[in-house]
Amino acid sequence: MINSFLKNVFYFLKKHFTLISIKKRQLKKMTLNVNTLKQMVHGIMSTRSDEIGCDECFEQLDRFVELVLAGKNVSVAMPLVQHHLEHCPDCKEEFEMLLKALRSIS
Amino acid sequence: MIERTDEQWLSDLKESSPHFDFALKDLRILLIKGLRAGVSKWKKINREDFENIVEESLIKIIKNLDSFKGHSRFTTWALKIGVNTALTELRHRRWKDVSLDEIVESKGMKSLLETVSRPSYSPEKQTIQRILMNTINKLIRTELTERQRKAMLAVRFYGMPLEEVARQMGTNRNNLYKLLHDARLRLKEAISKEELSLKEILDSFGSS
């Protein structure tokens, strides 16, 4: 009798927590997909014909990061670098790491 | 560590300079401090790896002194090279065992076909998002070359660094960016010919 009761409680709890876990996973998956789509659409629709490449961005990155640290409006001062960083995850990561590195030595 | 002007750094770091060893030591200290803060999010980097990155950065900086044009302070320029060296190494370590072909085959178009709806969006917005996803899915298949499709899936949907995708595709990062740029331009043109307006597209991601 007690065994049967405990078994039922066990199965109820197992089912309950499994459902919560599945729902959490699904929500995460769906959220991720919306964000992926959003980023992709933004990336496509904001494409310009005059974009610079990674080499040119790297060439100008030290000047750009100093302007950021000085609080200047970089989207006006260096719009092509700013635009490239919005489209290139590698260069953006380098910019962010450089910014962090410079802040740590100042 | 001695305070130096850009000119002093350039002159002291010439191998013939009597101040070379001191300047190199100071530059190493600067790189260690800056890069340590920069790489803090990369958990798996040990001390030896970190020291190798610093030494490799120093070699590159000394070798490329002539390319410093004075558009920033010398120390900013030097750290830029250090950051690039560190990230190239760290990205390679993280992704070297991941095959681009396997990703594209397993991931394929499946992720594009998954539902994109989220309960917080209104039914109208969810419908536009679904139409948009189907349109992009169709255009990626019909408008892009095989190389463009492969690179876009790896970078946008799998989060693989351009540098590693480029390496596996036998090109370099700059050329891969141009390949992806051409792909985006092509998709933009193709989307503008579809029935969806830009306003509808942007509105579909607004608040519910």
Question: Would you mind describing this structure in some detail?
Answer:
The complex is a heterodimer of chains A (106) and B (208). Chain A has helices at residues 2-45, 54-69, 74-77, 79-87, 89-105. Chain A has 106 residues and is mainly α. Chain B has two domains: 6-95, Orthogonal Bundle (Rna Polymerase Sigma Factor, Chain: A), CATH 1.10.1740; 100-204, Arc Repressor Mutant, subunit A (Orthogonal Bundle). In chain B, helix 2 crosses helix 3 and helix 2 packs across helix 4 (74-95). Chain B is elongated and about 70 Å long. Classes of the chains: A mainly alpha (106), B mainly alpha (208). At the A-B interface, helix 1, helix 2 and helix 5 of A face helix 2, helix 4, helix 7, helix 8 and helix 10 of B.
Shape of chain B: elongated
Report the C-alpha radius of gyration of chain A, rounded. 25 Å
Percentage beta strand of chain A: under 5%
Major interchain interface with per-chain residue totals: A-B, 41 and 55 residues
Q: Mind summarizing the main beta sheet of chain A?
A: none
Helix content of chain B: 55-70%
DSSP summary: helix tally of chain A: 5
Uncertain residue ranges of chain A? 22-32
**Overall average residue pLDDT of chain A:** 82
**C-alpha-based Rg of chain B, rounded:** 23 Å
CATH class of the largest domain in chain B: Mainly Alpha
Q: Major beta sheet of chain B, specifics?
A: none
- Assembly state (oligomeric): heterodimer
First-last Cα distance of chain B:
56 Å
Give the averaged pLDDT of chain B, no decimals: 87
CATH fold name of the largest domain in chain B: Arc Repressor Mutant, subunit A
Can you tell me the number of structural domains of chain B? 2
Secondary-structure topology with pairs:
The complex is a heterodimer of chains A (106) and B (208).
Chain A: H1 2-45, H2 54-69, H3 74-77, H4 79-87, H5 89-105
Helix pairs in contact in A: 2-4, 2-5, 4-5
Chain B: H1 6-12, H2 20-38, H3 47-63, H4 74-95, H5 100-107, H6 110-113, H7 123-143, H8 146-157, H9 162-168, H10 173-193, H11 198-203
Helix pairs in contact in B: 2-3, 2-4, 3-4, 5-8, 7-10, 8-10, 9-10
